[in-house]
Amino acid sequence: MSANPTNTSDVRGDRVVTNSTGYPYNDPFATQRVGQHGPLLMQDANLIDSLAHFNRERIPERNPHAHGSGAFGYFEVTDDITDICGSAMFSEIGKRTRFLTRFSTVGGEKGSADTARDPRGFATKFYTEEGNLDWVYNNTPIFFIRDPSKFPHFIHTQKRNPQTNLKDPNMFWDYLTTPENQVAVHQLMILFSDRGTPASYRHMNGYSGHTYKWSNKKGEWHYVQVHILTDQGIKNLTNDEAVEIAGKNPDYCQQDLYENIAKGNYPSWTVYIQTMTEEQAKKLPFSVFDLTKVWPHKDFPLRRVGKMVMNENPLNYFASIEQAAFSPANTVPYQEPSADPVLQSRLFAYADAHRYRLGANFHQIPVNCPYASKFFNPVIRDGPMNVDGNFGNEPNYYASNKQYQIPNQDRPIQQHQEVWNGPAQPFHWATSPGDIDFVQARDLYKVLGKQKDQQEHLAYNIGTHVAGADPEIQQRVIDMFSRVDEGLGANIRKEIEKNASAPTAKI
């Protein structure tokens, strides 16, 4: 099957125009009426077929990550990592696996601008011989939260005020400067630097963010984080450049990606991993399951795995990109989730979002089918829009008079890994006492100081954004970033004073 899985088996090759049930039109624009100028007739099934389908041709947009672009490509193994991971896709150097990647913004609606200040999604579906593998990543190595229960609250504050229906800097900053939520400060440093507005999808990285567990075929396992680093180099926009482009061409990144692939300028990324043993994890100054922290490269160096090349645009955006359904629960042997609580919650939430958005049988949509491995589970059947034959006369349970192949019964999953023991208890993973949640933000501020104008841009971007908020919230923003650096807090105050007359944030 090609990298553009599209079901066209029911499309007429002779291009005779019909209604949805195959009835050929006499005239696609004629309508049945009482006389030449009288009212329409309800018996005009062709007209009703067209109008009724038109009313239903939009599916619910994703809640976060509604606005996105994507394309197909191949992953090629360049280095042997079979000592770390036994997945078939890594079995030999030179092996290629087809993939689909969808890039996206997080907070905006489907029609929002590509250059908005926002993290970018970097979701990839690999069509492997062991099933579909989804790496549902972002372009930042960390995130705003580590309590999964806060995700709906956080996303609501990044969207629209329920009364004004406007983006609201009070909502945005009130949530993030609440003391228990200041664990987000590291991600905010990234978001409000120029890294928060990538110049294109081709010029940004992808990161797993979460910790995963990978095993080799001997049963040896490691904690793993994945880095997908652009071969085109990092390029970002300033705040003012991003605003200007949003006004001129809100689909700027979509156009850039499509046109470069169309003319053969295929973007590529090099895939690396960081690995950590369980013993090393116990010695960290923070939890290995903390989504707000990065692993220091000096302690856990990058190890090259392979290359991703994006070389084929979708034939139809809706079929291949809008209907694409990604979930971190879609994995393959030897790649498993860790106990990261946000990752654990995503294992349910993503697939459930697609059941709502696309229907119970979303896995049968061609772009989501595991066509490289095929699928057999006669218990998963029926439901709306079942189009794969529904397993015919197979029993809908595992019948004693049928033969079933279960080849991996002896493969260890997690019983040889961590052992958890303790009472069921609630735990609110709020901002930690002391400065541990500010250490990496301070380190990033020092890195920005080595790059031309980046500390100044950070203060300008934050000050511009919070200028429309209430004075009390502005002060909370200044206080929070002063814990990162006193000079940063002072510069944000200056920018707020410059923009004090602005009624709303620029982005």
Written account of the structure:
It catalyses: 2 H2O2 = O2 + 2 H2O. It comes from Candida glabrata (strain ATCC 2001 / BCRC 20586 / JCM 3761 / NBRC 0622 / NRRL Y-65 / CBS 138). The chain has 507 residues and is α+β, with helices and mostly antiparallel strands. Among the domains are: 66-138 and 197-357, Catalase core domain (Catalase HpII,  Chain A, domain 1); 146-196 and 435-501, Hemocyanin, N-terminal domain (Up-down Bundle), CATH 1.20.1370.60. 27% of the residues lie in helices and 15% in strands. It contains 13 helices and 10 strands. The chain has helices at 45-55, 151-158, 169-177, 185-192, 239-248, 252-262, 278-282, 317-322, 341-358, 439-449, 454-466, 471-482, 486-498; strands spanning 68-77, 96-105, 120-128, 131-138, 206-207, 212-215, 221-230, 268-276, 303-312, 335-337. Strands 1, 2, 3, 4, 5, 6, 7, 8, 9 and 10 form a 10-stranded antiparallel beta sheet that branches. Strand 6 and strand 7 (221-230) form a beta hairpin. Helix 3 (169-177) crosses helix 12, helix 11 (454-466) crosses helix 13 and helix 12 runs antiparallel to helix 13. The relative contact order is 0.14. The mean pLDDT is 93.
